[in-house]
Specification:
This protein has 220 residues and is of the alpha/beta class. It has eight helices and eight strands; from the N terminus they run E-H-E-H-E-H-E-H-E-H-H-E-E-H-E-H. The chain has a single domain, classed as 3-Layer(aba) Sandwich (Rossmann fold). The termini are close together.
Length: 220
């Protein structure tokens, strides 16, 4: 991984930050993205001279094109893409608003299409590329109140399997890492009762940690 250039979306905190730190520790130069200047500055601060934080709206094709042009000019072609950025808009389907559905699809699925497509030409030309998409176990199991999120994450799996078959012969691999319940700052708001309910379904008896996901991504 030494000397490779990696792009990690949604890298200001949680799983994205853990992935960015893990890849940089193994010698990659990491560009991490956030939706705000403050987030991008935080990424630059924790990566130091091993990377840089930049602002990206993953739902905006023009924002993606501008970012990739900047990266190419400043650092070179991207070798490793980690599509980690994601949001939730939980609601029962009977109550779900159209924007809650479309926001999830744009952020969690369509962004994977746009970013992956934008990387392919250079990856295939040099016959090397790694695309790792962060899915979720609920893409397979389903989860009440998350029809939008589960559909998007299931879509990421189907997309990745199909793309992998298209580009494998050119030295580009495409994989999905599908976390279960991971302890991040977002889970701190859960009550002890809620956490106990979750843990009762986890054979290991503990929540996953962001570093667990980061190590799986680094392996791939």
């Amino acid at each position: 991984m030494q000397g490779k250039i990696a792009l990690v979306t949604g890298a200001s905190r949680g799983i994205g930050r853990a992935i960015a730190e893990e890849l940089s520790s193994k010698g990659a130069f990491v560009i991490g993205t956030a939706t705000s200047e403050k987030g991008a500055e935080a990424i630059s601060a924790y990566l130091g001279d091993k990377g840089k934080g930049l602002v990206l709206n993953v739902t905006d094709k023009e924002s993606i094109e501008t970012l990739l042009e900047q990266i190419k000019n400043d650092f070179g072609d991207i070798d490793i893409l980690v599509n980690n950025a994601g949001i939730t808009r939980d609601n029962l389907l009977m109550r779900m608003k159209d924007e809650e559905w479309f926001d999830i699809m744009q952020t969690n699925l369509t962004s994977v299409y746009h970013l992956s497509k934008a990387m392919l030409r250079s990856m295939m030309k040099k016959r090397f590329g790694r695309i790792i998409n962060i899915g979720s176990v609920v893409g397979s199991t389903g989860n009440p109140g998350q029809t939008n999120y589960c559909a998007a994450k299931a879509g990421v799996v189907g997309f990745s399997k199909s793309l992998a078959k298209e580009v494998a012969a050119r030295g580009v691999t495409v994989n999905v890492v599908a976390p279960g319940f991971i302890a991040t700052d977002m889970t701190e708001v859960l009550t002890d009762e809620q956490k106990a309910g979750i843990l009762s379904n986890v054979p290991a008896g503990r929540l996953g940690e962001a570093k667990d996901i980061a190590k799986a991504v680094a392996f791939l």
